[in-house]
């Protein structure tokens, strides 16, 4: 894409994002965006293909904003505490950018997500891999990630749908603690977290290890990980 086309695309996205945040997705139309951007409707089709293409680009833009904030969360020596802060940051983003959030998580077509969604999931997995490596998880990180995303998305969408005066922050805090309590050992990082947590910690270490340094062949590593998953049940 040449520089002029990239600038035009960026300009249209900024205008469309402003309309989306100010007036909601129903106000984002070819006519409204083209008029606000000072361009022709035909130019939008050249840049994005159709309205679905523009909405997909807006969702990617929203994920970029979300990921930038997530990457700004500094790691601490407490992976379970980082899980709490990650939850709170997710909910806070949704309440500050409700129209973006609904586009990201509430109105997508089944089985399809913007490309940046994979990066967001990967970021969550990295948080949970650290918790597993510290012996703090009761379940494998992949399952913990699915459960966490389902819970935090549901809470955020519920809060967005409620009038501002009826939004009780205790709902998010209680759901967060219930989830974390079910996913982590109690107390976190105990001196003897148990066989399941030890198995998950070793599995997490194998996930991040350089295969060239492992004294096992790939089939042996796969078998070991299968045994570890059995022990973690």
Q: Would you mind describing this structure in some detail?
A:
- By secondary structure, the protein is an all-alpha fold.
- It has 2 domains: 49 residues, Homeodomain-like (Arc Repressor Mutant, subunit A), CATH 1.10.10; 172 residues, Tetracycline Repressor, domain 2, CATH 1.10.357.
- The protein has 11 helices and no strands.
- It starts with a helix and ends with a helix.
- The relative contact order is 0.09.
Entry keywords:
single chain; mainly alpha; globular; 11 helices; 233 residues; Tetracycline Repressor, domain 2; Arc Repressor Mutant, subunit A; 0% strand
Offer a quick outline of the entry.
This protein is mainly alpha-helical and 233 residues long. The protein has 11 helices and no strands. The relative contact order is 0.09.
